Structures are given as structure tokens and as C-alpha cells.
């Protein structure tokens, strides 16, 4: 259920930014996701599931393809989604010690791909 709701094709980064101020931290947000209320529930369920369930129980569900799909979502333009992803990714890193080396390598691959192969901006990587 979580994979179906979270892993979706992201819209391509927009060149014309629709800027507005977020009330809680006054950050500028480019092109916020209109489906955020639905996604927020899915991210909350994912986070609660990771925190409250034993790692051995979720071992078959939180696998390498799941982790790679989560990393791909960091390119979302909505900072609220990236913040929820960060929290979930941190909890997975803490709880699933057997995936730590793979997670570090996957993050390294994303950074190297951004540095050497991409000419466009990546929304989840700061300047």
C-alpha cells in the first residue's frame, strides 16, 4: 500500500517557479505538490511502521529496491515531502543496520551522478 501511494513519477522540474511562503518556517517553496495531504498520511504511516515494527519483520519489505525508490523521491520540488523522506530515511538507517552500507553507496551514487552527469538542478541537493 505504501509503495503504491509513495512511488509515483515525479513531475519534471519547472523552470517558472510558483513561489509562496510556508507559514511555519518562512521558506520559499517552488511548485508545491497538490497531493501533499494524501502523501503526508502515507509518510506518517511509513514512519510509524518503521519505528514501531521490528526490523526482522520488515526485512522482506524494506529491501534495496525500496530504498532506491525512496532516494529517487528526494528530487521532489516540495520541501515538505523531502523533509518527510529525510525522517523516514534516517529511521531506516537507524533500524536496518544490514542495509547501511548499501544506503551509503546509493547516496554516494546519487551525489556523483549529480556532480558529473546532470546539467539540471536536483531539488533535494542544495547549492
> Beta-strand level of the residues, as a percent range?
under 5%
Distance between the termini: 34 Å
Residue share in helix: 40-55%
Going across the biggest sheet, name each strand in turn. 1-2
Tell me about this structure.
- The structure is a single chain.
- The chain is mainly alpha-helical.
- It has one domain (2-117).
- The protein contains five helices and two strands, in the order αββαααα.
- It has helices at 2-6, 36-52, 64-72, 79-95, 100-117, and strands spanning 19-21, 28-30.
- Strands 1-2 form a two-stranded antiparallel sheet.
- β1 (19-21) and β2 form a beta hairpin.
- α2 (36-52) packs parallel to α4 (79-95) and α3 runs parallel beside α5 (100-117).
- Mean pLDDT is 81; it is low at 15-23 and 25-29.
- One of its GO terms (molecular function) is protein phosphatase regulator activity.
- InterPro entries: ARM-like, ARM-type_fold, PP2A_B56.
- This is Serine/threonine protein like.
- Pfam families: B56 (PF01603).
Summarize the structure.
By secondary structure, the protein is mainly α. Helices cover 52% and strands 5% of the residues. It has one domain (2-117).
Write the layout of secondary structure elements.
Layout: H1 2-6, E1 19-21, E2 28-30, H2 36-52, H3 64-72, H4 79-95, H5 100-117
Antiparallel strand pairs: 1-2
InterPro entries: ARM-like, ARM-type_fold, PP2A_B56
GO molecular function: protein phosphatase regulator activity
Pfam family, one: B56
Which key phrases capture this entry?
127 residues, mainly alpha, two-stranded antiparallel ribbon, 52% helix, globular
Amino acid at each position: 500500500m505504501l509503495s503504491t501511494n509513495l512511488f509515483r513519477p515525479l513531475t519534471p522540474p519547472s523552470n517558472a517557479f510558483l513561489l509562496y511562503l510556508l507559514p511555519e518556517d518562512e521558506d520559499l517553496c517552488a511548485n508545491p505538490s497538490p497531493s501533499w495531504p494524501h502523501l503526508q498520511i502515507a509518510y506518517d504511516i511509513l514512519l510509524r511502521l518503521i519505528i514501531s515494527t521490528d526490523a526482522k519483520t520488515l526485512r522482506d519489505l524494506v529491501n534495496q529496491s525500496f530504498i532506491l525508490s525512496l532516494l529517487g523521491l528526494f528530487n521532489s520540488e516540495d520541501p515538505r515531502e523531502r523533509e518527510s523522506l529525510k525522517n523516514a530515511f534516517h529511521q531506516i538507517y537507524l533500524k536496518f543496520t544490514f542495509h547501511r552500507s548499501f544506503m551509503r553507496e546509493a547516496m554516494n551514487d546519487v551525489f556523483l551522478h549529480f556532480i558529473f552527469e546532470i546539467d539540471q538542478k536536483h531539488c533535494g541537493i542544495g547549492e
